[in-house]
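TL;DR need structure tokens for one chain.
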Amino acid sequence: MRTSLVLLSARLLDPASGGFLPQTALAVADGRIAALGDDRTIRELADAATTVIDLKGAVVTPGLVDGHLHPVTGAELTHGLDLSGCTDLPSVRAALAAEVGTIARGAWLHAWGLDPNVFGDRPVEAAALSPVLDGVPALLQLFDAHSMLASPRALELAGVEGPRTFAQAAEVVCDADGRPTGLLLEDAACELVERAAPQPTHAERRERLAAALRAMAASGLTGGHAMDAGGDSLDLYTELDRAGELPLRLRVAPWCQPGVDRDGLRELVELQGRGGELWRVDGVKLFMDGTIDNGTAWLERPDCHGESTHAFWPDPAHYTQVIEELHRAGVPTATHAIGDAAVRHALDAIAKATANGAANETNSTPSPVRHRIEHIETVPDDVVRRFAELGVIASMQPTHCCDFTRADHTDNWSRRLGEERADRAWRCRDLWDAGATVVLGSDWPIAPYPPLGVMAGARHRRPTRDLSQPPHNPGQALTALEALRAMTVNAAFAAGEEQRAGRIAVGHRADLTVLAADPLSAPAAELAEVPVLLTVLDGRPTHRADRLS
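>> reply
TL;DR here they are.
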């Protein structure tokens, strides 16, 4: 066994143990942590071919893992104009006008990150932007990635002239006269117009993905739970993996859409285990609802506009049957469920599946099938308790609360829900205290992927743009150690990898993140700015700061 990497003069932080280890150095062999000890002992394990790095007191944690992101989709959606910094209509119009001035006549304008709060009390529609988009085919992705605004010219080129009927909860929003307003809700409606726009080549998509993943590695990420696998996503991962250009370890969950038949389910089951050295298909992603922001969530009571009253699955009972079949096949599921009714139904379905599975189980020591629910933006007390009772992973994205809601409840999300339900926002603390396994992620491209920012948001719950603003429901904040565990230990558990990942321990994967400061003592407001000095994946550096050269 040859030692490939040695890290010296380190502060080894193992969140599973609750703090720092007494050792100051580690050695890596065959992609695993081979030894822990003092500097002199570990240095003796190196030979002429070993990479030896003196960390000069930097902090080493298990590799940080984003529990929910969309690498391929994100690389595509974030190509174009970034509107995420715009806080009102004048700033959106100014950004669009500047972009229009740079594109060729007739070219499509793509933008992303549009916050519906910029419209204030006005409807979210293209008319508000028509002064700068006159004659320009434009697609403006709203920040939730479940809706977009299409300009009149884009609608014309796509042949969308009125309402459409869809097999799932999607909508071409129209005015009282049946004319499209430009707002498209959910994928089926958005795709009508997206198909009319010029498409990037495979080579362009591959490079965009590679660049996004390199940037993620530089932010300290060593892995991610990828919540989609559409189109040629798996082929792109295969290409990058074989070329040695995949800097993250990815666990991929393909989508299962409403209306799936037995053949479709069989294909999803057969996909499980496909992968390469650093990625694999492991799980299935389903949607129980849309988003509160655009009125497509599933709430137990309608929002203030009378919306968010239906499930994404036209027949929720069919969703329950699908969960049962996937559970019997040993396939873990991750269900997008934002509203209280959606979360409750997903838990009911998992409870039924696991009860039937236990009744039918002949193996006395079955491998656990760990189901997850994603987002969980507002739920009552009785729902919180059920996560631990059922062993369901709570996958949370705290920066959504930080950046898309306000403590005074004047934002679109809170106004739609009303005071009572807005006070139940992102109940990370309550879920943790109830015994649930909480995993943190970004949902990139919905929110930025740097993991230190995600952990910081879980602690301060304040708007990233202005940390002087009051926090939204600060009683739901996590501690520094809990936030770190949620992106290391708990992420490994959610993937069924707790015996080989998520710890600084001999035999565990050498997926490591090295920070210039202690994430447990760094103030929450400063954590996002802590430099990432080194990222190690499978024992090889994927990012190395100049100061370590």
